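Budget justification, computational time. The allocation requested in the original proposal was used primarily to generate structure tokens for proteins on the priority list. As evidence of use, we reproduce two of the resulting records. The first is shown immediately below.
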Amino acid sequence: MTIYLPELIPSHSTVFPNIENALNNPDGLLIMGGDLSSAQLISAYQHGIFPWYSDGDPILWWSPSVRGVFFPEQFSPSKSLKKFFRKSNYNVTLNKATYQVIDLCASTRPKEETWIMPEMIKAYKTLVDLGYCHSVEVWNGNELIGGLYGLQIGQVFCGESMFSLQTNASKIALWKFCEHFVSSNGKLIDCQMMNPHLESLGAQEMKRSNFKTLLEELRVKPTSSDCYLTQTLGDSSFS
């Protein structure tokens, strides 16, 4: 099957097509090209678009017809997860080791399954330096055992990836971030593509048109000024 796509001009172009023009097959494919500059990435996320492609492919930009999202105020950890956290030696931090979280999200996946290639790692670390990309870390003592990272777009957090090296680490990262995000006036966590794991954690499906409308409302509204300061989000000894 031949697919004809518009091409995004490199060198910091930030003009993307309307996401309603995305293909039905493959679902959500919108445009190709570009260069992963910070300006392109920020503009993409502000319009409900994200890059996703394999090694050797051109950069592909997507906006699927159905989005996976969390409403953080609705996130409810199970009794077993709460009990596990209380008995663990885990603690949870924000923005303490963002570079490491990005690296581990890439390195802990099988090579054939990861889209987080060296050029993407470099691009998102640049967004860290610019204050757009943030992470949640889960520690067992001094060992980093889980976490997630993503981009801030107003009152939306666009989750990119998570990893877990010990039991429940990524679940606890999400739980504690949801609590913190709600207290900081955050309204929506975008998971991009729905999958069974996200669904098991409580993610909901949202049609692209509804997501677009909500994103346009929330992207211009701020979270609290201390939302993304480096801080502790949870300590098992005080849970």
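The second record produced under the same allocation is shown here.
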Amino acid sequence: MIDPAYRKIAYDALWKNNQAFVALLGLCPLLAVSNTLVNALGLGLATLLTLVLSNLAVSLIREHIRHEVRLPIFVLVIASVVTVIELCMNAFFHELYTILGIFIPLIVTNCAIIGRAEAFACKNPPDKAALDGLCIGLGFTLALVLLGGMREVVGSGTLFARADLMFGEGAGDWFITVLEDYPGFLLAILPPGAFIGLGLLIAVKNLIDARIKKAAKALLPISRSSRSDAPLP
């Protein structure tokens, strides 16, 4: 059975405290490169890997860091991880790396990453720190993919355009034309379209949360009634 502590970490990271939809952290790269699904997925996976490795590293060295210098050490750890990821992307995914440009090294300044190192990784053992980084990264990647897919469909009428940038030449057949003879909608792939799209996704999440809360309140009287009607032992 899954430890409730691990379940809570996953739920908080993926949904309750999603860094893009709730905490609203790391919005600069999220809004800048999410004009296509593939670009969004590339940045999301790079951020996810950074979160996992930096959280794990910070947790492993947490007992050897003086409190006064912890933040510079965290930044140094994150910068080292991002440098390795940047070099690997440049070597194996050069075209995608070129498209994402400055936003790969700027992962170092992502508030979500330094925030998790300070708020969680430096206070928890490596397994929980790595899980937190994984789930926070998955939540951020999910937000990027949803926003990127929505903007690509509305802006160009396509999906998985240039999938070969990440998955190789064989992925060229993954290209999907969602809207035939679609002239395109320029606003969707410009920065204002990113703000509008993110706002719509946040509104959908808030609506889902409100319905869940309403359903829970409706079940509460039934639960209380069943307990009061239970026969005495």
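A brief technical remark on that second record: The CA atoms of residues 112 and 136 lie 9 Å apart.
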